Amino acid sequence: MILRTFFGFCLILVTFGVCQAQFFNFLNGFGRSFSGSENVINDSDEFLDEYDFVVIGAGSGGSVVANRLSENPDWSVLILEAGKDEIFLTDIPLIASLLSITGYNWGYKSKKLKTACLGLIDGRCNIARGKGLGGTSIINFLLYTRGNKKDFDDWESMGNKGWSYEEVLPYFIKSENCSSCEDIAGEFHGKSGYLNIEHPGYQSPFVKLFIETGMDMGYPNNDPNGRNGLGFSRVQATMKKGLRCSASKAFLKPVAHRSNLKISPQSRVTKILIDHQTKQAYGVEFIKNKQKYTVRARKEVILSAGTINSAQLLMLSGVGPRSHLEGLGMEVISDLPVGYNYQDHMAMSTIAFLVNESVTVSDLTVQNPIDIYNFIARGKGPYTIPGGAEALAFVKTKYASKSNDDYPDMELVLGAGGLNGDVIGGFRALLGIPQKFFDSVYAPLIGRPSFSIAPVLLRPKSRGRVSLKDSNPLHWPVIEPNYFSEEEDLATMVEGIKMAISIAHSNRFQRYNTRINPFPFPGCKHLRFGSDEYWACAVRHVSTTLGHHVGTCKMGPMGDPTAVVDEQLRVYGVKNLRVVDGSIMPNVVAGHTNAVIFMIGEKASDMIKDSWKGF
Ligand SMILES: Cc1cc2nc3c(=O)[nH]c(=O)nc-3n(C[C@H](O)[C@H](O)[C@H](O)COP(=O)(O)OP(=O)(O)OC[C@H]3O[C@@H](n4cnc5c(N)ncnc54)[C@H](O)[C@@H]3O)c2cc1C
Ligand SMILES: *[C@@H]1O[C@H](CO)[C@@H](O)[C@H](O)[C@H]1NC(C)=O
Ligand SMILES: *[C@@H]1O[C@H](CO)[C@@H](O)[C@H](O)[C@H]1NC(C)=O
Ligand SMILES: *[C@@H]1O[C@H](CO)[C@@H](O)[C@H](O)[C@H]1NC(C)=O
């Protein structure tokens, strides 16, 4: 009872932003005794003048690189992270979306678009990016998928030697510890990596119905990271005993004791130092506790600040499109298309299905002592559902089904609750749903059990751009995601929505008398509810990003005018500088991006070790 009150109280306090800092510190101490996460980071303000490697950003990519490079005791490694350490709250899988309203999110917003996010707060898209040890893997939804075989074979056929599926698979396996997974294709999984993967310790009855309906449609119940690219399955999650396994928990904390590895949180890099004559990167400037520091890198600077910030830092350091930089009065060291090729996954998470039994999960249903006890004592129960997502399907719409391959263009994510259960408002805040919108579409249904199926556009054609507003490193960059600027993306998404609805309205789901939420979306009320035009309007108004932003420092062969880094992830025209994070993806993969970035980190580490062998 005490716990229940405490927990409910926590969520409410955080939601209203009351005394967040004090509260988080308190929670941190409180939660550590449950999660066993100890503060192992020695956060001092003392730095050497020079390290062999300086890694910028302790997110999914950077954490792996810092770990692997410091395996060599002769190399010193400094990893600089703008944000703080994680806390107990960030460990709880179910409440992932709440973290977007904390300081663990950079909180970016896009420019206003004509093609998307029209019905969201201020008409702008929320671009959530994690800030802290662990990066975006601290605020993400923990879903573990690797993309499709064809994604990597395509990267390779664009001229990126070494990146075919066959060549990257060993690195997925290397990073992974899937020791307690069930129903998996064993030969595709690892058991001795740092990254813990498991199934959530809870399953609503809809998981079974969803998978069975998939089989009715001719899709297998598969391991989403196994042999078949298409199929329906339970989720695999980056989780350990029911708690989030972030990049930092997996790759940094276990090796934080290494004397050749210095992990420095709250250290914001403002510039990569590049010699104008030799075009060689030789160090970084950063700010910690209001003080400015300069450290040198003897061997390399590794840029792992993520798709938005890596592009920004490169441009701030003189690497970017010439006309853009000169227009801002900045010097150009290497003229490259930094910031272009931005890609992302958009989803319709706003469609709720009502059912006639209380078998779903919402903010209200989980405020009971049994669920809280189960989570804290056993690491089980609904609190372990990653961001509320229980199962997923990789499918083909009519636009992809012409070809004979198993390359999906649509993902369907089964959620244990609908937005009408988002009483505290964490999910709404992440998506940017205005209060008026909530009041007219969901508020009449508060307390009614519901679930959701969110279609995700996996292979978008639309491309966006990240650019500088000015030369101040502390200002936000300009983000123009251009979602749904290509009509085909819109048409495919409408097909995905219709698939989601037809699954929810299929026979098996009638056991719960499943019905779509009948309240129409504001802005689309003039169109016939359920028509293609209606759904297209809904997509433009309230589809939202899954946070899979990639591509702004594209990998490509020499001579590709759109490439920023080569197949070894070295920045063209600059020596001793590599980019290792999601920004190097030439095309977004047809799956969630976190696992792929761990793979990129593992592979890059081997490349770097190779080029400095014997030094
Ligand atoms: C809400 C949300 C849900 C998601 N859900 C999933 C999911 O379920 N499954 C999945 O696979 N993927 C998911 N993702 C995506 C996935 O988590 C990211 O693609 C991945 O973590 C990005 O890794 P990265 O290394 O490219 O960047 P990040 O992990 O973002 O790392 C960059 C780091 O650099 C730091 N940094 C930036 N600038 C500076 C600077 N100037 N100085 C110092 N440090 C700096 C940042 O603070 C950050 O810690 C989700 C994303 C979001 C936003
Ligand atoms: C922490 O780091 C500082 C400077 O790097 C060092 O002097 C100190 O001994 C370290 N403390 C521990 C407990 O490792
Ligand atoms: C993998 O996970 C299992 C179960 O949690 C654990 O016992 C084992 O030590 C882990 N292996 C590694 C290499 O961390
Ligand atoms: C829910 O609806 C189904 C189908 O109409 C019905 O068979 C079932 O009894 C209902 N359950 C409850 C609890 O009303």
TrEMBL record:
Which segment of the chain is annotated as a signal peptide?
1-21
Q: Which InterPro entries match?
A: FAD/NAD-bd_sf (IPR036188), GMC_OxRdtase (IPR012132), GMC_OxRdtase_N (IPR000172), GMC_OxRtase_C (IPR007867)
PROSITE patterns from the xrefs?
A: GMC_OXRED_1
Report any Pfam family annotated for this entry.
GMC_oxred_C
* Keyword Flavoprotein belongs to the record: yes
Enumerate the cofactors the protein uses.
Answer: FAD
Statement: the UniProt record of this protein carries the keyword rRNA-binding = no
Tell me which residues this entry annotates as catalytic: H548 (proton donor), H592 (proton acceptor)
Which residues are FAD-binding? T136, V269, G582
Molecular function via GO: flavin adenine dinucleotide binding; oxidoreductase activity, acting on CH-OH group of donors
Q: Which keywords accompany this UniProt record?
A: FAD, Flavoprotein, Signal
Ranges where the Glucose-methanol-choline oxidoreductase N-terminal domain occurs:
130-153
Q: Which Gene3D superfamilies match?
A: FAD/NAD(P)-binding domain, Glucose Oxidase, domain 3
Similarity annotation? Belongs to the GMC oxidoreductase family.
For this entry, the protein name equals: Glucose dehydrogenase [FAD, quinone]-like
